[in-house]
Amino acid sequence: LPQRLATLATTAWEEARQSRQQLQAQRQEVARLQEQLSRARQDGERWASALQRAQREALEREAMRGAEQARQQELIRDMKGRLLELLREKDALWQKTEGIDTPMPSPASHDAGLCARCRKDFRLLSRRYNCRLCQGKVCHACSVDTGKQGRCCLLCYQQRHPQAT
């Protein structure tokens, strides 16, 4: 019986030693896993911080683009307004200089695509008007609006209304 007890004690001691070794290995594994978890959390925090920074930068860039687009649209509006002013000024200057040494328009111009006075092509921005007096086709710059009676060319208007020159 003492030998059996010694064998059982040795076996129990060996099992306890193996259990301690397994416990030690499991503790080491838990420590290693906790360290990996800690590194993963730190990496997650760094990635979240980088993502927030990238989102902030993207929002700032979008705001800058929006402001730049608004400035460009305002510039385009201003340029369109200035273009219209320049066109009006050009027409006014053209009308002022038109009466100086200009020949009488031919009553029936063979070229219906050109102004009878300045020979300018009729296009989208240059309308064609029939002079109510000589029936010539003239552009906006070469005509005068006489109200309800319609438009007439500058030469006919100046001949009918010499006080206007």
TrEMBL record:
Domain FYVE-type: start-end pairs: 109-161
Species per Swiss-Prot/TrEMBL record: Eudyptes sclateri (Erect-crested penguin)
Family matches, as Gene3D superfamilies: Zinc/RING finger domain, C3HC4 (zinc finger)
Residue ranges of coiled coil: 16-57
InterPro entries in the record: RUFY4_dom (IPR059036), Znf_FYVE-rel (IPR017455), Znf_FYVE_PHD (IPR011011), Znf_RING/FYVE/PHD (IPR013083)
Protein's recorded name: RUN and FYVE domain-containing protein 4
Gene Ontology molecular-function annotations: zinc ion binding
Swiss-Prot/TrEMBL keywords: Coiled coil, Metal-binding, Zinc, Zinc-finger
Keyword Transmembrane: no
Organismal lineage: Eukaryota, Metazoa, Chordata, Craniata, Vertebrata
Xref: CDD domains: FYVE_RUFY4
